[in-house]
Design goal:
Two copies of one chain form a homodimer. Chain A has nine helices and no strands. Chain A has 225 residues and is mostly helical. Chain A has two domains: 46 residues, Arc Repressor Mutant, subunit A; 143 residues, Tetracycline Repressor, domain 2 (Orthogonal Bundle). The relative contact order of chain A is 0.10. The first copy, chain A, binds a DNA duplex (30 and 30 nucleotides) through loops. Chains A, B: Keywords: DNA-binding, Transcription, Transcription regulation.
Chain lengths: 225, 225
Amino acid sequence: MPKAKTPRRTGYHHGNLREVLIDAAVQLVEEGGPGNVSVREAAKRAGVSPGAPFRHFANKTALMTAVAEQAMSRFRSEITNAVESVATDDPIERFAAVGIAYLRWAIRNPTHFQVISTRSLIDWDSSESLRHDNEAVRALVEGSMVEAQRRNMLRSYDIAETQIAARALVYGLARMCIDGHFAQWAVAGHTAEQTAQDVLKHFVALIGNEPETAKKADLTLEHPD
Amino acid sequence: MPKAKTPRRTGYHHGNLREVLIDAAVQLVEEGGPGNVSVREAAKRAGVSPGAPFRHFANKTALMTAVAEQAMSRFRSEITNAVESVATDDPIERFAAVGIAYLRWAIRNPTHFQVISTRSLIDWDSSESLRHDNEAVRALVEGSMVEAQRRNMLRSYDIAETQIAARALVYGLARMCIDGHFAQWAVAGHTAEQTAQDVLKHFVALIGNEPETAKKADLTLEHPD
DNA sequence: AAATTATGTAATCACTGTTTACAATCCTGG
DNA sequence: CCAGGATTGTAAACAGTGATTACATAATTT
């Protein structure tokens, strides 16, 4: 009998190392951002040798991509749930709901949002799931946009550009929070999340057809940066 | 005579290693983005031992911060030059000029824009110069915004929110390009730069008071992502 | 039961940021 | 002008990283 050297782990072949590694990586992301993830540390936390992860992931990027897929799925759920639970069928309100849910998730899960939005960390093109979830969100925005135009609720006729502007605005707000451009800002009375939402609503009012735009005069926000 | 071990370099103490290291790091950034920078490689290119850089920079972040300062200075110059060489004194046109110059520089210097906008790479707070240049750009935007409001050229009364929206939009556009969210997009007829400019102009039209907004119906842009 | 395949380990490689002890050069005050 | 301290370089080391390799063990198929 060869007397197993380290029989500490039962069912020696671990069974579901892949999932455990992803969970460990998720935890590392939450603890200190994407930069805090190391394959070795994930392996250590899974109670496995440093080379073991490479039986399940071609490289670190593949592991990060799996983390991103998990995060993206939650991200998409939050958004689709939010828009489904919106009372009205007003397309502009539905559009706003998407943006607000987007910002809410991004600001509350900054490290994970960083993972799913920074392409250098992951292998976006190789992941069906990432593209699929992303497309679902995009389609949600486009759908409400098209419907809003059909009802003549938009100021501009060019929904393509309006849509890109909307995406860029929301993405920009999320990243400005995450990249730390709002240092002074969050210190002020308003939370970053609240302010981001206000700005989004401001934008929504701008694209709308209503002659009376948001005239809530001054929130006297500290200037960002 | 102790016969210098490696007298290959004249004026042995190199004279201006600090600048040479920054230049090497800049080159590395250009070659492969911020992730391509290593202190050791910069040292090698400067013809110096791996420990030498730490006589001039406390750590890698300090080196990257120096790189960022140089980039930020160019970034600011491009923007201030652009707005100064704008013919009209129309504040909204001046505002648009800032945004266009911003996008132009970011898209043409993506790796450097990544350096100056990703706070995890640099020590933003410790750099007077970074804050100063950033504030100059911000003030430029705010100035034109305030003036536009004074002339009653804006739709909304809340310039604070409009200003944040503008910043977020431009930042979002720049980062979407850089983070690779426009893959299919750039392949289409329009360059990323042209499209980003169009979207910016679209936004500028939206915030303006003119009843007739941009009605250039369809550019039939491929959808991003 | 034997052969094959999947999945782990151990050792190793090249590379990274950073620190330490030491050496060479420069600068300045007597 | 030169003694001595401050600068600024080197060499060697350390711990950590992603990744590969040869090998061992467990699960699975034949």
